[in-house]
Amino acid sequence: MEDRIRNILGMLDEGKRIFRIQDGEVDREEFEYCQIIDQLVFGERGFVQTLGPTWNLVHDPRFNKIENTFIINRRSLFGGDSRVGKQYISSDGTFSSTVADLEQYAEILGEGRHFHNVLVHPNTKCPIRKWLERIHTPTQAKPSDDLQCLCDGNLKKDPKTVKDWSKDEVWALVKQECPNYFTREGKPNYIATRLYDLMKADLIGMIDDYSETPLVDEWTDLDTGDIIEQTNNVDLDVPPQVFMEVDILEKALTYRATLRATAAKILKQIGFAGYLDRMAEQYPSHEPLLTDGEMDTLLRMIYQSKWPDDKPLLVANLSNYVMVALQTPYTTRLAEQLARASQESKSVVAELKTGKAECINRFTDPGTEVQQDAHAELVEAIIKNPLKQGLFVIYAAAEKQMMHKGISQGGLLAATSLAVEGVGGDEALCQDEECAECATARKVVDILAPIFSAPDFPLSEEGYTKFMQDVKETGFFDKKKTDLEGQLGL
């Protein structure tokens, strides 16, 4: 994949995400699948709109540096990639996403806001601080014009200056708030060390610029996505919980990455690298061309187009957009966009504090019942259930093995397309019941098809294990030598 295309889509593999772009063309079914994901991320009441100010910090280059503090480079004893904290994105719609990713974003937002509160509202009894800490500590404080800060101004510290503090000052702050992260001799553990690195990467300053408090303040069941009451009970019977903002942020970033991977194939398919070379010939191939926000706009232009029916119009629109953007230096555009995003974010936060705007939760935003078609409902069911996600990857891989009769092999939905009538269809698969080439794959499809026959198909951990065992017994993993089995822990 040409560096110019990777550059313009933020895919140079220099940070948390490693992109694996497969050969082949993007067909209509794969594109339609990506359009659904595009709506989930950027559409009305989608992830980005729900995150509000928190999404603005994603566009700040500091966010990438902060993500990278969680990457641990280890020596690989048996070959392969042993780095921790990386995420692998494939252009066929698959990705590696774990609870560790949620923990990273929970730490970024949670610790960033905690230390911000400590510096800006040093009095633990300050009503504003109590309201800001409502996420983890119940409070009677309510947002209103009467909600006033009671802190001594002489004790407040500017959160934007923490990155410039001396080592001793930063370590003192970490030890003040997290004494258990240090040994009796005062030696920090790895969590304390990461907090130090986060502060030197200007985490607190970034929180101050964009997201002092979340727009959405609910807790959800990690497995089902259902809204629940938070509980600090460590009883193992309590289902795993995650703050909704953290869950949505991780999903938005991951699905955006898959959209970028497929968009890269589309740009290569239309020969856009040549246009980029001519428009950006004065820029080194690794020097950034578009800001992160502009990359989002580029994605929306691609997935709101009529691909593959009107390729010339798509090329013209994308070329004009990039050409106009490059007329202004990158640093100037970035500074203007970040300043505007920070101002907008602070305005939202100020209105949340005074009660002029309301946080999104079950009481203020119960939601409207939107009638979805069967296709969208099934995709949403797969996205919400990590167990179904894992099995769907296998299901799609098996279907692809059955598409050997001269039919184009596209993305995940190129075969029976989630068993939804009118999208793709069984005719895309080999219909020869005696075909030896796809006998094993046919068994796998028959085993997994019931899971994707309806959005509400129940799938427990026990059921998942049973399905995986049935698939394994077909010999599918032995025949298809990929890293899929290793990713799924088989």
Name some characteristics of this structure.
single chain; mainly alpha; globular
Distance between the termini: 31 Å
Kindly state the mean pLDDT as a whole number? 82
DSSP summary: helix tally: 21
Q: What's the quaternary structure here? A: single chain
Stretches where pLDDT falls below 50 for ≥5 residues? 366-371, 406-425, 480-490
Strand proportion, as a percent range, falls in under 5%
Notes on the structure:
The chain has 490 residues and is mainly alpha-helical. The chain folds into two domains: 1-370, no CATH class; 376-487, no CATH class. The protein is 50% helix and 3% strand. It has helices at 3-8, 28-42, 47-51, 53-58, 61-68, 99-120, 127-132, 167-177, 190-200, 203-210, 244-269, 272-279, 292-303, 311-326, 330-354, 374-384, 386-401, 439-448, 461-473, 476-479, 484-487, and strands spanning 17-20, 87-90, 219-221, 227-228, 241-243. The protein has a three-stranded antiparallel sheet. Strands 1-2 form a two-stranded parallel sheet. Helix 6 (99-120) crosses helix 10, helix 16 (374-384) packs across helix 17 (386-401) and helix 17 runs antiparallel to helix 18. The longest helix has 26 residues, at 244-269.
